[in-house]
Predict the 3D structure of the following.
Amino acid sequence: MIVTLAGGVGASRLLRGLVAVVDPSSVTAVVNTGDDIVVHGLHVSPDLDTVTYALAGVVDHRRGWGVAGESWTVLEALERFGPAAPESSSAGLTWFRLGDRDLATHLYRTQRLREGAPLSLVTAELARAWDLRCRILPMTDNRVLTRLDVEGEGEIGFQDYFVGRRHDVVVLSVRFAGAEDAVPAPGVLEALMGAERVVIAPSNPVVSIGPVLAVPGIDDAVAARREDTVAVSPIVAGAALRGPAARLMAELGHESSVVGVARLWAPLAATLVVDEADAALAPAVEEEGLRCVVAPTIMRGPDEAAALARVVLGR
Amino acid sequence: MIVTLAGGVGASRLLRGLVAVVDPSSVTAVVNTGDDIVVHGLHVSPDLDTVTYALAGVVDHRRGWGVAGESWTVLEALERFGPAAPESSSAGLTWFRLGDRDLATHLYRTQRLREGAPLSLVTAELARAWDLRCRILPMTDNRVLTRLDVEGEGEIGFQDYFVGRRHDVVVLSVRFAGAEDAVPAPGVLEALMGAERVVIAPSNPVVSIGPVLAVPGIDDAVAARREDTVAVSPIVAGAALRGPAARLMAELGHESSVVGVARLWAPLAATLVVDEADAALAPAVEEEGLRCVVAPTIMRGPDEAAALARVVLGR
């Protein structure tokens, strides 16, 4: 069993590589749900959806999320109502891009949750509908909300930060509301305990992997498997391939480099895979107490993803 | 001011006639919300939407509800998830036909209700977005649920009955859950008190007009305006033009004829408009204590609707 702690786009690409090089039924993804948002009454799980769509082969590769060939009929119709709402309302909001096919996922998930089904079950049902053979687990069935304290604004939700403000604000701190009372989803700890390999995906360490590790029990379970845990740095040459990982790390007092990533993951992972662009920093990474593997980590397509998966698995 | 108690399709056609023959800003519709349903987490108000779309000129005339030229991308995508859900789940349900453009209305309404806006305000915002000059009021801002006791099944919700079972079941009784604690939406009683004319639309007396009158205060307010109240019979030649009005009336012990309608509305309306097909029953209607006006009541298009509106207004 290969267990991957996963955020969205970067993780989904590595997961596609993993299921290409090993039996998909031996792959488990433990996915961040701190980004989940209820919008227009619908429960949206962006990272679960990105991972599911990617593994189903229907993801929009250019965007990295959503369904390929998506249409936006509902969203365009919603724009009519935008100005009708008072200033303070987000009812006509269309910044949160809900595609028509993507909406079907949210409608299904919302109905099932309202019926009392736990998120893990709903996630499994969606995976089955897409004929996936690997296993996708939310980090928890409880509600954990990634909240960011933004300079000059106070605390806001993740999607307000990430989509609404295009992460172009100064973050003072991050917390995962509800995490202290959350329990790992059924199967998460068992998967980690029995894993041949634990992988920390090249996702944002602060807001993608951070929430997963904030669920009590997961951090300890990964630490207990440190020798078999491999992390892939999401930072390449001091920058994130996409998203605010580098900026967030710097703002929260971490070095935004593979060395900074090494310091974060040293208690959890014995190995860190860094990109060839960072080969010169390998000794500094190893000084943090991890074995450093240098390899191409930028996954432009399935071949690179499969190659990186082989590196991660040491094959 | 012309105030119309309204259900869905039949009422929406008469309302289009009314706004064609009088200043639209003098027309108020008080609309049934007992059919409202939360499906996939979205608050759907079928009758409010039918009335709004019809008055906006975007209704699908053939169906009588929904938006003309509608697409069904979301619903088709949802069908993928149907079989994934357990038997007992309705998460993949697609019998409730949610069109793409229609969904935008439900997304907007749901978000606003979640923000704490009352349904009457949301309804006004939607009407404004469609540039309507007439006023559309829900019968109440409270939750009232039309529930039907169905032979061999027990109690089910309105949409389960109407859409799910295509009203092809035996109804033993109908109740409006929550009505006893509901209050009329702001403006409803004032509109009725100040109306030049109160109109009971040719909607299903039991499940469309019934819920409106079940909201405490509305029935009395209409009765107080009996002399100025005109009802239009939804029963023509013993049958309903669409839907289960005739069957429901018979099953609940009413005569499914204009005479049965006259008995129902006699305490509330001084005048009943019946179709020319029922001209022979005019004396029997008048025996129930209402003035009977015979006129064409079948509204195939705007001309017939306007003509019927003139009859209703006595012009």
Remarks:
- Chain B has 13 helices and 14 strands.
